[in-house]
Every structure is written in structure tokens, then in C-alpha cells.
Amino acid sequence: MTAKLIKGTEIREVILEEVKSGVEQIKEKHGVVPGLVTILVGENPASISYVTLKIKTAERLGFKEIQDSQPEDISEADLLALVDK
């Protein structure tokens, strides 16, 4: 059996195009825009970078995007209330 090189970047692009097409179909068929809400707690640089990438990808795919930054000392109850919202 010969090894097959799997190019993750190419596969990612194919998947993202499929999702983008699905988003467009939802918009046309149902008149709604799918969305992504991110809640960032604190200012960890790695978390900021991760969330920023998710936001850019969501926007590229046509999602409505809402990003909510919260202080590091947010209480668990307040954070859970925000998630429920």
C-alpha cells in the first residue's frame, strides 16, 4: 500500500466552501443569518488569537458574529447567565 499525502489546508478550504454554501442556502431559503457568539474571558494572548481567528472565519463564511469580552474576574454566575442569554 502506498502512502497518501493528506493536505489539511486544502481539505479545510473544501470544508469551508461547503459551509459557506450552506450558509447562503439558509439565508435564501429561510431568510435568516446563522451566527456565532464568542465570549472571551480575560486577556490571554493565546485566547485572543484563537477567538480572532474564529471571528474572521465566521465573517468569511457569511455568519453574523457577536464577540463579547468579559473581565477575568467575572463571576461564574454572571458568566453562566451570559451563556444562557
The helix/strand class is alpha+beta
Mean pLDDT: 95
Identify the CATH class.
Alpha Beta
| CATH architecture identity | 3-Layer(aba) Sandwich
Can you count the beta strands?
2
The CATH superfamily label reads: Leucine Dehydrogenase, chain A, domain 1
Poorly predicted segments: none
Work out the helicity level: 55-70%
Neighbour order of strands in the largest sheet: 1-2
Main sheet: strands, sense, barrel: 2 strands, parallel
- Summed up, the domain count is 1
β-strand amount = 15-25%
Oligomerization: single chain
The CATH topology name reads: Rossmann fold
Q: Give me the number of helical elements.
A: 3
Write the H/E string, N to C: HEHEH
3D shape: flat
Distance between the termini: 53 Å
What is the radius of gyration? 17 Å
Give a concise summary.
With 85 residues, the chain is of the alpha+beta class.
3D architecture notes:
This protein starts with 7 loop residues before the first helix and ends with a helix. The longest helix is centred in the first third of the chain and has 23 residues, at 8-30. The protein is built from three helices and two strands. It has a two-stranded parallel sheet. Helices cover 58% and strands 16% of the residues. Helix 2 (45-61) links the parallel strand 1 (35-41) and strand 2 (64-70). With 85 residues, the protein is an alpha+beta fold. It has helices at residues 8-30, 45-61, 76-84; strands at residues 35-41, 64-70. It is flat, with a radius of gyration of 17 Å. The model has no long low-confidence stretch (mean pLDDT 95). It has one domain (8-84): Leucine Dehydrogenase, chain A, domain 1 (Rossmann fold, 3-Layer(aba) Sandwich), CATH 3.40.50.
